Amino acid sequence: MLEQAHPLAMFFQAFVTQTVGYLVVVGLVFLVVWRWGEERFRGSRIQAKKRVNQKQLVFEVKNTLGTLAIGTASAVIISLCYAAGLTKLSADASAFTWWGIIASIIGFLLLNDLWFYAWHRLLHQPWLYRRVHAVHHKSVDVNPFSVYSFHPFEAFILGSAIFPVLFLVPIYLPALGVLQVLGMMNNIMSHLGYEFLPRWYTRIPPFRWMNTATFHNLHHTKLNGNYGLFFRFWDRALGTEVPEYEETFLKRGAALHASNTN
Q1: What stretch of H or E contains 172?
Q2: Which pTM was predicted?
Q3: Which of 38, 108, 156, 163 shows the greatest Cβ crowding within 10 Å of its Cβ?
Q4: Per residue in 103-137, pLDDT tens?
Q5: 41: which strand partners?
Q6: Between the CA of residue 122 and those of 4, 58, 117, 225, what are the distances in Å?
Q7: Apex CA 181: angle with CA 75 and CA 32, to 5°?
Q8: What are the domain boundaries of the chain?
């Protein structure tokens, strides 16, 4: 973290670094899966019809820049609070056990998933949907560039679950980096547009409780249901899972399995 730099310098450097890194990663995934793999991975496509065009990609990148700017501003605020000793963050590894670090990562993932589920479901209420969440749902045939295509309010509120945790719960500083990487990997997978996970994935705990590309893809095509971020259990417990999810997942898996055995 840049503790001594001017806040504007911190923001600029972090924004450029994060934006370049993010677009390189997402761009490579898009090129490999959507361009190089378009025919090779045809059996793994979730939606039968390809709708992605240049107009959609430009729209998504534009909104992504806004989301990354908001995320960078949040990171700068966290850095300043950490430098002032206002958070529970610590870089002292001796103050934590490995089990404690792992428990804190899992605990935040669960909390973040509940936070995301609650806000995501609220954002589907008509007033908020029309003014805020509709931006993200302009991407029906989702692809890696859809990940952070958000209205600014949604970008802020979905990422703000970390703030109360930082001021209340002791967290090992590198764990934040782990959480960021896990979050980005999950988001890219959710918006991949292709299902590469094996058919048994939805049958064996704990994998059956995890999100998949098909799970979130159905949210974009059905509009309502499948509100979870990392996990399925909030949707299952509260009756908002799309009923045909597992059937759709197995169809993709069956198609992939057939293409691999021919």
Answers
A1: strand 171-172
A2: 0.90
A3: 108
A4: 999 999 999 999 999 999 999 999 999 999 999 99
A5: none
A6: 39, 27, 8, 12
A7: 125
A8: 7-198
